[in-house]
Amino acid sequence: MKTWFARMRSRGPTTQSAVLTVAVLVLYAAVGPVAGLLSGPAGLAAAAMAAGLCWGGAELALLTCRRFRDPSRAWLGVLIGMLLRMGLPLLSALVIQVQGGRLANAGLVIYLLVFYPVTLFIETALSLPSEEPPPGHRDVPEKVVS
């Protein structure tokens, strides 16, 4: 019996994107009230910014890995995907922390640490190759008769 993630790996990019988006929204629904209690509106904004940055990086990585599904270029998809998945949240957090302000004071970096592992897990699980062989692939080679 296939797991839910195994079935999602064979779906199209729209379905995979929707899965990632719903997961981030559900996590924000859990984190948002805590952020609001701790830091008020600035906490809600910091949590939303962290959710958006992690979602954006994971979404770009998911699309990149899909683009480079060919086994001979899969390593390129992994490297570019990793750069996008980590780079977008990390560089944005660096800029926001250095500039200071409400988002930095409300704990944007802490919220990134909450959202990043979840988006990393989901994006990685969705990017893995599906268990179904590619079209035209056979386990036993055809015999050619001349």
Describe the structure.
The longest helix is centred in the N-terminal third of the chain and has 27 residues, at 13-39. This protein is mainly alpha-helical. Helix content is 75%, strand content 0%. Helix 2 (13-39) packs antiparallel against helix 3. The protein has one domain. It contains 6 helices and no strands.
Query: Based on helices, strands and strand pairing, what is the structural class?
Result: mainly alpha
Extended strand count: 0
SSE succession: HHHHHH
How many structural units, i.e. domains? 1
Helix content: over 70%
Mean pLDDT: 86
Distance between the termini: 42 Å
Radius of gyration: 19 Å
The number of distinct helices, counting runs of at least 4 residues, comes to 6
Strand content: under 5%
- The parts where pLDDT drops under 50 for at least 5 residues are none
Largest sheet: none
Overall morphology: flat
